[in-house]
Amino acid sequence: MFTGIVEELGEIVAAEPLADAARLTIRGKLVTSDARHGDSIAVNGVCLTVVDVVDGDCFTTDVMGETLNRSSIGKLDLGARVNLERAAAVDSRLGGHIVQGHVDGTGTIVSRDPQENWEVVRVSVPEGLARYVVEKGSITIDGISLTVSGVGVDDAGEPGHRDWLEVSLIPTTRQLTTLGAAPVGTTVNLEVDIIAKYVERLMQRG
Questions:
Q1: Which of 83, 118, 143, 197 has its CA 20 to 30 A from that of 204?
Q2: Residue 39: is it exposed, middle or buried by C-beta count within 10 angstroms (0-12/13-18/19+)?
């Protein structure tokens, strides 16, 4: 489990294609400092397992085909910056919200609206996920726990992605995460609040 509070900006330094998978080497001095084989680290919101620690500041991880297809991980180039977070400790504060690291789908940054002290970012939402997104609720975008500041529908939007959400980025988020510099058109990983999905399931069975 994670909190959606990014600890470090890392870098993809190597990628080895495997059969229906890929092995990535990711540099992140902080998250690697106490990493061991089998530990979980969220990379742009995707929960990945540490295979090995390399040179003290890098770790390798295997990404299966389903994850490559369902997230933006497979589209990252060498040198790409990524948001990194170690699994939450039971004795730590929950600064964000409960994040599983299980990406539900991807969206696209469709606009950025800079303000004096923050920036409003609009992201398209796949049709199947829109019902779980509510204003003032929580959303995870590329592993970042954010509050939804607005929702809506664009009738002229891309089929299957006409719904959108907005988040407001404070200076700290802009400076310390990949979302701060991601241009319009960037594909981002989305994880909706797991509580909404549990409630829906219970209502269906009731």
A1: 143
A2: middle
pTM above 0.85, yes or no: yes
Instruction: Please tell me the distance from the alpha carbon of residue 78 to that of residue 18, in angstroms, as a whole number.
Output: 16
The secondary structure of residue 5, as a DSSP letter, is -
| The total number of residues written for the chain in this structure | 206
- The C-alpha atoms of residue 155 and residue 197 are separated, in whole angstroms, by 26
3-state secondary structure of 66: helix
Query: Angle at CA 102, nearest 5°, toward 38 and 113?
Result: 125
**Nearest alpha carbon to residue 78 among 29, 131, 14, 34:** 14
Q: Report which DSSP code applies to 96.
A: S
Determine the Cα–Cα distance for residues 161 and 3; give it in Å rounded to an integer. Answer: 27
Calpha distance 145→96 (Å, rounded): 5
199's CB contacts (< 8 A; 6+ apart) are: none
